[in-house]
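Weekly sync, protein design subgroup
Attendees: M.S., D.O., the rotation student, P.L. (late)

Item 1: inverse folding check
M.S. brought a backbone from last month's batch and wanted to see whether the design step gives back something sensible before we order anything. D.O. pointed out we never logged the input encoding, so this time it goes straight into the notes. Structure tokens as presented (126 positions):
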């Protein structure tokens, strides 16, 4: 096995680890959101503190409502994974619903259209 092959193998291992960490983060965020919902039942005035952003010095994103949805999500990897899992062509709407489900949003979330638009942007280069 040559050096390039070893490097490719290592790169693939790192990619798999990154994907596993992203899934773990998404699951932890779902659990955290569930805890926030339960806490709010006992303390109606409870407001979960937003996690500190690494981009705090930058201007606010005008699509802030979507920024929290896509936080930690690699859209391209997500779409490609969903297409592979489906094994057939699926719509951007199907991808948007799947993404919403993965991040813990209800399937009738008002932002699904916007999420679908962002998913569609990922497919434009193809």
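Designed sequence read out in the meeting:
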């Amino acid at each position: 096995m040559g050096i390039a092959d070893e490097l490719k193998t290592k790169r693939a291992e790192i990619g798999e680890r990154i994907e596993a960490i992203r899934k773990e983060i998404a699951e932890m965020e779902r659990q955290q959101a569930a805890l926030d919902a339960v806490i709010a039942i006992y303390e109606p005035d409870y407001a979960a503190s937003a996690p500190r952003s690494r981009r705090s010095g930058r201007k606010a994103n005008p699509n802030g409502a979507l920024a929290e949805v896509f936080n930690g999500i690699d859209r391209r990897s997500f779409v490609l994974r969903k297409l592979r899992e489906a094994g057939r062509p699926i719509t951007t709407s199907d991808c948007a619903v799947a993404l919403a489900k993965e991040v813990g949003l209800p399937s009738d979330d008002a932002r699904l259209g916007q999420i679908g638009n962002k998913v569609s942007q990922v497919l434009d280069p193809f």
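Discussion: The mean pLDDT is 78. Helices lie at 3-42, 64-70, 75-86, 92-102, 112-123.
Action: P.L. to compare against the previous round before Friday.
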